[in-house]
Amino acid sequence: MNKYHHLYDQLIQHTNKDNVLINEPIREHTYTKLGGAADFYITPSSYEEVQAIIRFANQENVPFTMLGNGSNLIVKDGGIRGIVMNLQQLASIWREGDKVISQSGARIIDASRFALKEELTGLEFACGIPGSVGGALYMNAGAYGGEIKDALESTVVVTKDGELLSLTADQLDLSYRTSNIPDNGYIVLEATFALKPGSKEEIKEVMDDLTYKRESKQPLEYPSCGSVFKRPPGFFAGKLIQDSNLQGQQIGGAEVSTKHAGFIVNKNNATASEYISLIQFVQATVKEKFDVQLEREVRIIGEDMEK
């Protein structure tokens, strides 16, 4: 038993007890299949429950961590203390005029597919991004020349004090793979994308082409966090790693992909420690060979395993 479990009875007053799991292995909820257990893993089913749980965490001084769908994330082997929240139950997507509105727990891929069905153009670039809508805003996700800030009009967030806030896209300071969402402690609940009417056939053609490019070039057959590093100015991370002869390099069960050098895959039951060590080895090698510091795109959270 950890020191927060005595709060269980109070916690389930704020959401259905079926929405609260104790000692839940985070590896079951991340694309890398890495990570220890969360003390509490909570999937609220309404905005009001999200607000109530945040206020409860503040009141009881319980650590709080927001988890998207775990696509751009490494959780350490010791897991995460306190409350981990996932908004997977808040995944509705609907249309208002030429706008697509999506709750943050939906996958950005599904928002893109919904736009296709509604014959709206502007989200094609997102058809292969594996993250949730909330996660996509968090890091201004992008692919193949498009990014969230190109389509986003506004968002509804919860502040770290549990208050609802409506913000325009400009208020999020969206830039390359970043926003002010983490600095402000916001939790995204909803996103409104301003799109334009388009030809369903043309939209589908673009999405099919991008899907082919993704599936043919990326090592989707293994668990991974996706693209590990941001693109350094004037370079491509994958090319630098490839030119450093690092493809196929392994630490434990983690490997620099032989298919795409910008990916590190969990090839054989890697631990988070092995995965992180390989990231650091790649950074050190590229720095030594090319004097370029690769900056991580992937987030690393949680605690190391106690020895």
Automatic annotation (TrEMBL):
The active site is at R177, S227, E297. This is UDP-N-acetylenolpyruvoylglucosamine reductase. Pathway: Cell wall biogenesis; peptidoglycan biosynthesis. PROSITE patterns: FAD_PCMH. The keyword Cell cycle applies. One of its GO terms (molecular function) is FAD binding. It is found in: Cytoplasm. Residues 34-198 form the FAD-binding PCMH-type domain. Pfam families: FAD_binding_4 (PF01565), MurB_C (PF02873). GO terms for cellular component: cytosol. Cell wall formation. It catalyses: UDP-N-acetyl-alpha-D-muramate + NADP(+) = UDP-N-acetyl-3-O-(1-carboxyvinyl)-alpha-D-glucosamine + NADPH + H(+). PANTHER family: UDP-N-ACETYLENOLPYRUVOYLGLUCOSAMINE REDUCTASE. Belongs to the MurB family. Its EC number is 1.3.1.98. GO terms for biological process: cell division; cell wall organization; peptidoglycan biosynthetic process; regulation of cell shape. Keywords: Cell cycle, Cell division, Cell shape, Cell wall biogenesis/degradation, Cytoplasm, FAD, Flavoprotein, NADP, Oxidoreductase, Peptidoglycan synthesis. It is an enzyme of class 1 (oxidoreductase). InterPro entries: FAD-bd_PCMH, FAD-bd_PCMH-like_sf, FAD-bd_PCMH_sub1, FAD-bd_PCMH_sub2, MurB, MurB_C, MurB_C_sf, Oxid_FAD_bind_N. Its cofactor is FAD.
